[in-house]
Write a structure and sequence with these properties.
Blueprint lengths: L1 E4 L17 H11 L1 E5 L1 H9 L4 E6 L4 H8 L5 E4 L2 H8 L8 E5 L6 H5 L4 E5 L5 H14 L3 E4 L9 H6 L9 E3 L3 H10 L3 E5 L6 E2 H6 L5 E5 L8 H6 L2 E4 L11 H13 L1
Parallel strand pairs: 1-4, 3-4, 6-7, 6-11, 7-8, 9-11, 9-12, 10-12
Antiparallel strand pairs: 2-5, 3-5
Helix pairs in contact: 2-3, 6-11
Length: 266
């Protein structure tokens, strides 16, 4: 591990870490630049264990030992900066631990992700990075074999998604699917039945569906507010609903994913 002490915020070696609070900038820089940000020693360690490679690390002196343990034998420059310099570079007070600029892995082919899977979570157009991260955490905790995300779904490797997932975005296999005209035949061809969570008059209660669930299920959830698109509902083999009480008609998408996954695995 190469320790490099940085004296000021203008050091060009820290350019990967600038303006991290600007979501629009990160959406451009991370995918097109081939990078994503991992935040905290625990998350960085999980990324490294999953085979991801850091380009560099930005840390304060108090976290040097933790990042050395997280990186193991990985050879990457570790930039050590004061709290003040780190905040000037990133635009926020870093208090969760080191930041690592990680090389983004190539997305896996859909057929490979589905090969041994029996239960996959499909997120259509979920735009909130926190919800994406929480859905991945639920998938990891409750036994989903993979997560699929639609073309307009928020990036699972965005810094907030990674952080909220507690690094489970590295643990659960995932990939991005195409539009439904392409994705639905691919799922059906792999033997999956698509179960869409939605409010509809002909929806089946979750416990009823779970009691006779197909061998391979793709559990489909939609974006916050609008829910699933008409194309997604048309692609579904079943529409499933979670029975509600207290005058509530729906749950947060990540909470709904957790409830449905638990029902389908118990």
């Amino acid at each position: 591990m190469e320790l490099v002490h940085v004296a000021g915020p203008d050091d060009r070696r820290l350019d990967d870490y600038r303006s991290l609070t600007d979501v629009a900038l990160r959406r451009v820089r991370e995918p097109e630049g081939g990078l994503y940000m991992a935040e905290s020693a625990k998350v960085i360690a999980r990324a490294v264990q999953a085979g991801h490679r850091p380009r560099s690390v930005l840390t304060q002196a108090k976290w040097v030992d933790a990042i050395e343990e997280a990186l193991g034998d990985i050879d990457a420059p570790v930039y050590v900066a004061s709290d003040e310099v780190s905040e000037q570079v990133t635009g926020f007070a870093i208090h969760r631990g080191p930041l690592a600029a990680m090389h983004r892995p190539v997305e896996r082919p859909l057929a490979e992700v589905l090969d041994d899977a029996r239960l996959v979570l499909v997120l259509e157009d979920v735009s909130d990075h926190t919800n994406v991260g929480a859905a991945f955490r639920a998938a990891a905790a409750l036994g989903a074999d993979a997560v699929l995300v639609s073309p307009r779904c928020a990036d699972p490797l965005y810094r907030r998604s990674v952080r909220v997932s507690m690094g489970t975005v590295f643990q659960v296999p995932w990939t991005r699917i195409g539009e439904w005209a392409e994705a639905a035949p691919a799922l059906h061809g792999a033997g999956f039945r698509i179960a869409a969570l939605a409010l509809r008059d002909d929806a089946v209660d979750l416990d009823v569906y779970a009691a006779e669930r197909p061998d391979r299920v793709a559990l489909l959830l939609g974006t916050e507010g609008d829910g699933l698109t008409s194309q997604a509902l048309a692609a579904a083999d079943s529409v499933v609903t979670i029975p509600m009480q207290g005058g509530v008609d729906s749950l947060n998408v990540a909470s709904a994913a957790a409830v449905a996954l638990w029902a389908l695995t118990h």
